[in-house]
């Protein structure tokens, strides 16, 4: 399984990094397709089928991500509209409607945020590369430290394998990834980038735990089996979704990229 996971990562990582470097329609198209796939996975998890509400969410989120290239505010409004429509057609029960609407928001808003962050002409490429590498480093560090050290579980009711040692290891590896990005892109304040990266690791782990909770509630092990050794797209980018959304909100509130603090 570990060998399969590594091989899959080696296949997926270069196109993702290349698209992030290229930006524009190449990156938006990659994120849009991923968003549509995640909507498919979400509705199969929480509803057991990819019904009309799921198809509306998938098409709507794909369109919103592409729209974010030219109108980020309009893209956010489209996601909100799609969430309401998806919830409306999901079914008569309030629980089903809540999960359908939440899925569009959970997937659509961070996906739009990624395209908006990449659109920054000054630091867009650095920020997206940082998000990708920071989240990957968090996952690798959490896995390695958790396996080597073990110890108390982080949140056993949600995830039976994640440990506090893994969280700390993820933070350390994320900080090192932040240092590497700061050095590669010539960013000032390498210490602050490392600190932000360590905090980003916590945010990514929260996103990971949230998706684990949804899967446990839905009675599934993986969001899908589309990626050999990894499960589904949601299984791979759950931490990225939370980190991208938080980074975008902080950038909007502060008026500066999180890497420029």
UniProtKB/TrEMBL annotation:
Record-linked PROSITE patterns: CDS (PS01315)
Which compartment or compartments is the protein found in?
Answer: Cell membrane
Record-annotated membrane-spanning stretches: 20-40, 99-117, 129-146, 167-187, 193-214, 240-259
Q: Which GO terms describe its cellular component?
A: plasma membrane
Name one process (GO BP) from the record: CDP-diacylglycerol biosynthetic process
Reaction catalysis annotation = a 1,2-diacyl-sn-glycero-3-phosphate + CTP + H(+) = a CDP-1,2-diacyl-sn-glycerol + diphosphate
Q: Give the coiled coil ranges.
A: none
Q: Does the keyword Transmembrane helix apply?
A: yes
MF terms (GO), sorted A to Z: phosphatidate cytidylyltransferase activity
- Keywords, alphabetical: Cell membrane, Lipid biosynthesis, Lipid metabolism, Membrane, Nucleotidyltransferase, Phospholipid biosynthesis, Phospholipid metabolism, Transferase, Transmembrane, Transmembrane helix
EC number from the UniProt entry: 2.7.7.41
What pathway is it annotated to? Phospholipid metabolism; CDP-diacylglycerol biosynthesis; CDP-diacylglycerol from sn-glycerol 3-phosphate: step 3/3; Lipid metabolism
Membrane topology value: Multi-pass membrane protein
**In which family does this protein belong, per the annotation?**
Belongs to the CDS family.
Mind telling me what this protein is named? Answer: Phosphatidate cytidylyltransferase
Organism annotation = Paramagnetospirillum marisnigri
Upper lineage ranks? Bacteria, Pseudomonadati, Pseudomonadota, Alphaproteobacteria, Rhodospirillales
């Amino acid at each position: 399984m570990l060998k399969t996971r590594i091989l899959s990562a080696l296949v997926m990582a270069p196109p993702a990094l290349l698209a992030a470097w290229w930006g524009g329609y190449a990156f938006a198209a990659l994120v849009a397709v991923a968003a549509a796939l995640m909507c498919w996975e979400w509705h199969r998890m929480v509803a057991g089928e990819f019904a009309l509400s799921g198809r509306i969410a998938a098409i709507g989120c794909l369109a919103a991500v592409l729209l974010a290239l030219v109108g980020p505010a309009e893209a956010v409004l489209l996601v909100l509209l799609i969430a309401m429509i998806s919830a409306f057609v999901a079914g008569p029960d309030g629980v089903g409607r809540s999960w359908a609407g939440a899925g569009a928001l959970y997937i659509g808003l961070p996906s739009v945020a990624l395209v908006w962050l990449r659109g920054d002409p000054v630091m867009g490429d650095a920020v997206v590369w940082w998000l990708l590498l920071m989240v990957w480093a968090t996952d690798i560090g959490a896995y390695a430290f958790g396996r080597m050290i073990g110890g108390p579980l982080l949140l056993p009711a949600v995830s039976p394998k994640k440990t506090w040692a893994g969280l700390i290891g993820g933070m350390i590896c994320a900080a090192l990834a932040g240092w590497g990005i700061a050095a590669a892109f010539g960013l000032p304040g390498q210490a602050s980038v490392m600190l932000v990266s360590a905090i980003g690791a916590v945010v990514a782990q929260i996103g990971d735990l949230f998706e684990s909770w949804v899967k446990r509630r839905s009675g599934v092990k993986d969001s899908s089996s589309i990626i050999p050794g990894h499960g589904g797209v949601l299984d791979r980018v759950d931490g990225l979704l939370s980190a991208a959304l938080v980074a975008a909100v902080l950038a909007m509130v502060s008026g500066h990229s999180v890497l420029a603090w």
